[in-house]
Amino acid sequence: MTKDNNHNLSPVYPSSPLSVLTFRLGGQVYGLPITAVAQIIEMVTLTHLPQLPFAVQGVINLRGKIVPVLDLRTRFGLPFKSYQLHTPIILTHLNGQTLGLVVDWVEEVVEISASDLETGEMILPSILSSSQLGSGPLSCLAGVAKVERQLVLILKVEIIMSLDEQFQLVEQIANSSIV
Fold it and tell me: Domains (ranges, CATH) in the chain?
């Protein structure tokens, strides 16, 4: 997959179809713009570090690079689910850093047409601030797409973690003995 830093969803409909990687958390289908996805790997041993930001389960060594791994179930307030050998980790780009996202199941890449997509700004009233939305899926909602009789919540990867959490994470990795 090629890296493209232009993976924000515009407040207006995109003019061309949007390619989205779909995945499941609990019974809900979510999606990430394919341009935000670097790779999908299966679960590997996580190294736990003290005082990590909320929902970060640890770090992995990916080809010599330390990659933090965030559990989206935990992040979105769903009950923790034990990891299995084939539990997927979606590797994404977050402000120049690779971030792993643990999900229940990766489904497929779908093309979403402009007519099947409503952006977050159109769905949620502008009076709702991110502080009112908390850290659940609505806090990082880019839009909702209609795909084959189901709704897919499209996420903005760049706000899955706050800037404070990103800074805390970088600091913890730098201060750990694994670097």
Answer: 18-175 (2.40.50.180)
